[in-house]
Amino acid sequence: MLSPALDDLTARLTGPPAGAVATLDIHASLGKIARHLEHEDRRRRDFLRAVRGINFPAVTFPVVSGALTVTPNAVLLGPEDGQVWDIRRVTLAGWTTADAAINVNLFREQNTPTAGNLQNRLKKFNDSAPGNETWNPGGGLLLHSPDSLLVTGSGFTTTTAVIVTLEGVQVQADYEAEYLI
Fold it and tell me: CATH no. for residue 138?
C-alpha cells in the first residue's frame, strides 16, 4: 500500500472487484426473470378471464304458413364486436311427428338476412322424429362479428316454432390465437 489516494485511484481505474461484478449480474438477471414471470402470470390471468364456456340464450323461430320466420332476436345467434364464438353444439327443437316433410337448414351469414345463401349452408336437418336434433360441429365452429347463425325451414304442418339453442366458448378476439393453440 503506497498511499490511500493512490489505492483509490487504482481502484477507480481497474473497476470493482470481480466478485462484486458477478453479484451485480446475478441480481440483474434475477430481476429480469422476476419481471418476466410476473408478466406471464398477469397474461395467464387475463386469458382465463377472456375465455369462458357459455350456454347461449335460446332463440325461437316462429312457423308461419309452414315456414320458419326470422325474428329480430335472431341477432342473438352471433357474437358482438370484439368477441369470437366457438360453437360446440347446435340443437333445434320443436317439431312433431306430423311434420314429416320438413326441410330445415343452418347457415353462417352476416347481418342476419331473412334467407340463407346456399354457399353458406353449414347443416341440413331433415328429421321427421319429434323432439329435437343436435349437431356437434367437429373441432368447433368459429363465428366472428358480424357472423351469425341463421335457421330457415319449410314443410311444417303443425309446429308453431323451432327453438335453437347453442353451447360453446366465448373468447375475446385479442386472445383468439392463444385460445386456438
Answer: 2.60.120
